[in-house]
């Protein structure tokens, strides 16, 4: 039952995280912000997490995941409510910062908790179940954001989105959740340095895969709402397109456990990301809603399946007692790209338009994945 409770909490928080990102982007577009400004706001999701992920991972190894998970959920609530009470670009900057920090604390903690449920043979199934819950929230969040903005306004959209992490906060407070807490015997013995983990070739390869995976996910989340607005789509239609991404991610995560038993995890990740890169190149020449829904679903399926596989590989390759720290390094990689990519590609979009940005992204994704040789 612990696993399914965690999945429910993850779904509630992911609804705000994904829907909030769409709402923040569309609110900034509604204020006639440039791609560079929107990119700067988007980059703030990753700024503090980039600096704090490893300390939060080490904290998980020392005290367990419960309190960092609770703190992350509280930050979700604060970040979601802020733009509804103080509308303006400054509030969007602050909301992105709080939501990003909350997501980092929550994700490192829940991934650590789920990794300790059952044995190593259960990890792919457990992480797929967690990812299914997160995909469910990611489907609902953009739909709420899009339709609420169209029919009730920007401020109301943020209030509606914040109801889900508030419910998660109440559940975490009310339920006596028993999570795996490391004991002294589980801790890594002797003095350890974070850089020691980077001598593990398997972990290094996972972090490189993660960087390309996150770049793909972040660029799609940032560029698609802007592309949709540029071609005249309404907020609700953009929400449907983003929801198709999450629905396909959900579907692939349901199908993932039997695929993971049949095929090598490294090869599955590599093939899916290369295919996602190819689809990226087609987005800027598409303007019909149904075509964009299809492209969004194809990318969502590929990227959604890759994430639980990388989580399984991190747990399998991490030294005993340092899983939280390994997850913290992964999250630092994730947040570094969350911070840098919107700034770089937002600036390029302002200078050259969105089409070259999509094509450059496709080239980097496909070229990077083709060049990587998985570590063992």
What does this 3D model show about the protein?
With 376 residues, this protein is mainly α. The chain has a single domain (2-175, 197-371), classed as Growth Hormone, Chain: A. The chain has helices at residues 2-30, 35-63, 66-85, 89-115, 123-151, 154-174, 201-230, 235-262, 265-280, 289-317, 323-352, 354-371. The longest helix is centred in the middle third of the chain and has 30 residues, at 201-230. The radius of gyration is 19 Å and the shape is globular. The model has no long low-confidence stretch (mean pLDDT 82).
Key attributes of the depicted protein:
376 residues; mainly alpha; globular
Number of DSSP strand runs: 0
Average pLDDT rating = 82
Number of helices: 12
Low-confidence stretches: none
How helix-rich are the residues, as a percent range? over 70%
- Number of folding domains? 1
The CATH topology is Growth Hormone, Chain: A
Anisotropy-based shape: globular
Q: How far is the first residue's CA from the last residue's CA?
A: 34 Å
Strand content: under 5%
CATH architecture: Up-down Bundle
Question: CATH class, anyone?
Answer: Mainly Alpha
- Which structural class do you get from the secondary structure elements? mainly alpha
Q: Can you identify the CATH superfamily?
A: MFS general substrate transporter like domains
Radius of gyration: 19 Å
User: What order do the SSEs take from the amino end to the carboxyl end, as H and E?
Assistant: HHHHHHHHHHHH
Largest sheet: none
